[in-house]
């Protein structure tokens, strides 16, 4: 059953939908929305099991596409540019393929239409997610009293302070004044293999080539989520796709190089 998503909305003009990635939320995209809202109506939903949207028992790409279809219907969106980052990029690709009549343009940020569970893929695209969700599940939030303690616990295995602070944004206090994760850790951990492997090249076999709407991939050149070797596979699915590279940016390119990311967006919307 589709979930009714919580969301943020700002601006005026043609609609742009922004779909965050794993562990993300609408809050992570507010600075980007502010740069777009003078020209566009920007919707940023929290995907299921993230942010303030419902926690559900399943987390599949079909679930998230169904949620997004309901979102379009409920908000009377007839056609929109759909921008998705990482997991949200795979949601965007699947949604656009299934509902091309609703899509004015597709923008995919730092994710490829492939499985990230292959043996030749760098470990961090899968193994790091397993580590992160394992730590989240292991941490006894009832026993901690500050975000500093949480950071100290995560730092034993996660040495990147920027990553830790990003994850800690998913912490809030519940009505009993205890910390809890805003993301649905057990369900996301159970779904991790399908999250990292889904919406791959095989999924597009009976849908390619896709030519019904303009497609842009934006990648951070310090990220390994879209390598040069992935470009022929992207072109096989989206022959007219444009690829924009952002220097000095990793996987979280919109946070690391926001001005360059906005410049890239405005060149294609």
What does this structure look like?
The chain is α/β, with parallel strands linked by helices. It has two domains: 7-117 and 198-266, Rossmann fold (3-Layer(aba) Sandwich); 123-192, no CATH class. It has ten helices and nine strands. The chain has helices spanning 30-36, 61-74, 87-98, 127-138, 147-155, 161-168, 185-197, 231-237, 253-256, 258-266; strands at 7-11, 14-19, 40-45, 80-85, 103-109, 171-173, 179-181, 215-220, 242-246. The chain has a seven-stranded mixed beta sheet with strand order 1-3-2-4-5-8-9. A two-stranded antiparallel sheet has the order 6-7. α2 crosses α3 (87-98). It is globular and about 55 Å long. The protein starts with 6 loop residues before the first strand and ends with a helix. 39% of the residues are buried. The model has no long low-confidence stretch (mean pLDDT 95).
Task: Map the helices and strands.
Layout: E1 7-11, E2 14-19, H1 30-36, E3 40-45, H2 61-74, E4 80-85, H3 87-98, E5 103-109, H4 127-138, H5 147-155, H6 161-168, E6 171-173, E7 179-181, H7 185-197, E8 215-220, H8 231-237, E9 242-246, H9 253-256, H10 258-266
Parallel strand pairs: 2-3, 2-4, 4-5, 5-8, 8-9
Antiparallel strand pairs: 1-3, 6-7
Write a concise keyword list for the protein shown above:
single chain; 269 residues; alpha/beta; 2 domains; 7-stranded mixed beta sheet; two-stranded antiparallel ribbon; 9 strands; 35% helix; 17% strand; globular
């Amino acid at each position: 059953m589709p979930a009714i998503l919580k969301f943020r909305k700002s601006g005026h003009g043609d609609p742009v939908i922004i779909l965050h990635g794993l562990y993300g939320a609408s809050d992570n995209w507010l600075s980007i929305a502010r740069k777009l809202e003078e020209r566009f109506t920007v919707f940023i939903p929290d995907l299921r099991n993230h942010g303030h949207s419902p926690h559900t028992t399943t987390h599949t790409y079909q679930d998230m596409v169904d949620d997004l279809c309901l979102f379009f219907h409920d908000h009377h969106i007839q056609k929109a540019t759909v921008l998705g980052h990482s997991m949200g990029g795979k949601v965007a690709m699947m949604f656009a393929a299934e509902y091309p009549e609703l899509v004015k343009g597709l923008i995919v940020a730092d994710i490829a239409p492939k499985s990230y569970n292959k043996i030749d893929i760098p470990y961090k695209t899968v193994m790091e997610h397993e580590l992160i969700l394992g730590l989240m599940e292991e941490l006894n939030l009832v026993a901690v009293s500050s975000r500093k303690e949480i950071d100290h616990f995560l730092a034993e295995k996660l040495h990147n302070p920027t990553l830790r602070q990003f994850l800690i944004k998913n912490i809030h206090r519940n009505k009993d004044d205890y910390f809890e994760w805003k993301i649905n850790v057990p369900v996301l951990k159970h779904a991790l293999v399908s999250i990292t492997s889904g919406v791959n090249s095989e999924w597009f076999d009976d849908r390619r080539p896709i030519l019904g709407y303009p497609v842009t991939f934006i990648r951070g050149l310090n990220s390994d989520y879209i390598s040069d070797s992935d470009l022929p596979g992207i072109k096989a699915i989206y022959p007219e796709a444009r690829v924009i590279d952002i220097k000095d940016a990793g996987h979280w390119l919109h946070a690391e190089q926001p001005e360059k990311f906005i410049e890239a967006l405005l060149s294609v919307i």
